[in-house]
Design brief:
The protein is mostly helical. It is built from 13 helices and two strands, in the order αββαααααααααααα. Strands 1-2 form a two-stranded antiparallel sheet.
């Protein structure tokens, strides 16, 4: 009996080792990809941020000088301010618009699949194509937007050539491109809410507005947190439309932090300083995400 129990334990241990080995074999490709394309570049970028490196010679250790440069770089702080303004304009607008669109499409309206497809098309359109099309639309003389304003006898603008309107114009284009993705997320959240809850509120005499505010929104909070976090991260990292449409102009009016990092890295070849700013951006995004999750997380009654 003792020998039988001992043999059973040995078999169990050997079986667990085989399972662990099999799991390790299946996980190995993912671990290698993670190390090669994420962990190693992140660690190397951290090392480069403490160096002066132009990619044409060996890195030279300079300690915290790149981080000290950030404190005295006016263009960096201008870029950070533009990024914060862009985020402050983009996140509320795209959240409200995508939620309203999802609530509309969640109703039993005709041709809903067609509407979903049309609204989702911009998100799968390459950003270069989106940027080029909207750049022509914002042209002062022959652009579609100014032509529409002239037809309505409204004042026109330089749009991308105006230091005051260039950044809001980029916000409009970014909302147009990305709100379809957030709309799909909200639509999935709305369709996950049990219909019995809404019917109970209707029976209790709650209006559609009160039912949406008091029942739908609280149940939709996890999706709301996801959308706002993703929207804020995307806004803080905006680069492609800036690169295609304005290149940071006019007069640094649309220079975002990501675009400034790109110019320092691949135009000035100041890789150490670009790496330092990248880690600043990483810390800013981490803090922003934690604050959003703290403010929007569900409250529990004690």
């Amino acid at each position: 009996m003792i020998q039988s129990d001992s043999a059973r334990m040995r078999w169990s241990l050997n079986h667990q080792r085989r399972l662990a080995a099999s799991g390790g074999v299946f996980l190995a490709p993912s671990i290698l990809l993670f190390v090669a394309f994420l962990a190693a570049p992140l660690l190397y970028a951290l090392y480069i941020s403490f160096n002066n490196w132009s990619m044409l010679s060996s890195p030279t250790w300079i300690g915290l000088e790149n981080y000290q440069r950030i404190l005295h770089d006016d263009i960096f702080w201008r870029s950070l301010r533009n990024t914060v303004v862009f985020t402050a304009l983009f996140v509320p607008a795209v959240t409200i618009l995508s939620l309203a669109s999802a609530a509309l499409l969640n109703q039993s309206i005709r041709a809903t699949p067609l509407f979903k497809a049309l609204i989702f098309i911009p998100i799968i359109t390459p950003s270069v194509v989106v940027g080029v099309v909207w750049t022509y639309a914002f042209q002062p003389e022959l652009g579609l937007i100014n032509e529409l304003l002239r037809s309505l006898h409204l004042p026109t603008s330089l749009w991308l050539g105006s230091p005051q309107l260039a950044l809001p114009a980029l916000v409009i284009v970014t909302i147009w491109q990305r709100f379809g993705w957030f709309m799909i997320l909200f639509l999935a959240g709305l369709q996950d809410i049990p219909i019995e809850v809404k019917e109970a509120a209707t029976i209790d005499g709650a209006s559609s507005f009160r039912s949406f505010v008091d029942i739908t929104l609280p149940l939709l909070r996890p999706t709301l947190v996801l959308v706002t976090v993703l929207a804020a991260i995307g806004a803080f990292q905006v680069f492609d439309l800036v690169f295609v449409m304005t290149e940071g102009g006019p007069a640094y009016a649309t220079q975002t932090l990501s675009y400034y990092i790109y110019t320092k890295a691949f135009r000035s070849f100041d890789m150490g300083y670009a790496a330092a700013m990248s880690y600043f951006l990483f810390i800013a995004l981490l803090i922003l995400t934690l604050v959003q999750m703290k403010l929007l997380r569900p409250t529990t009654d004690s």
